[in-house]
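Exam revision sheet. Question 4 asks you to relate a sequence to its structure. Input first:
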Amino acid sequence: MVTKFQKQMFVVLKKVSYLVRLMPKLSIGKKKQQLLWAARLRDNKPPEPVHHSKVTIILDSCLNRWISGMFYRFPKELYFFPENEIQDHYFGEDYQKYKEILEADYDISERINEVRYYTNPLYRWQLSKYFIHHAFIVFKTDKWWWSIEKNGEGVTIARAQRLENVRDKYQLDRNRIVSERTGIELIKTAPGSVNITVKELIDRLWKGKQMNLNYKEKNGKQFANFIYDKIFRFLD
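Answer key, structure tokens:
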């Protein structure tokens, strides 16, 4: 049940989101703006990640923990959404069945050729996703585009033949949340080729205890960061 304190905090978050519009006047905002302009001069390559202060990082972590505890309390599952298939797959928490179905009915032996890290706002009223945002991974194999992400509903893998069907949609049939001032943004791409298959990626996530469906312990950003930083970033 939402308490009076949580309602008050929700109002505060709205005000914070409004004030973040003034960010370009701050040193952090100027640095980010400079990186964005530099990216345009480099043929639209994504900017290097901005190194924020410890205070900013702590505030970001606290906001995400509070939001995850407040809103994500319903049952969670493992999902797989293949494009052009009659049936989607829901597995509860049965990881072994999840993996067996993917291995038996879908080609997860394909090697991953390209990896992208995206973010989008959590709420439509957000004027900025500077502090609060969802993160997800999109990767490409020879035949398909894939997305993998974690949120309050669980862990979802989707597969489609067109990039926009996994980048712009959640579970292939719901448009991702965007607001008037911020939307889906490509933050970074893994350098060089990626020598790993889809099956190996899923195995590493399981061994790294990232398929845990407890959103309060590992939220969407932490999940995406683990995939990008611990798996893809250092592969040759």
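Marking note for examiners. The chain has two domains: 4-70, 75-232.
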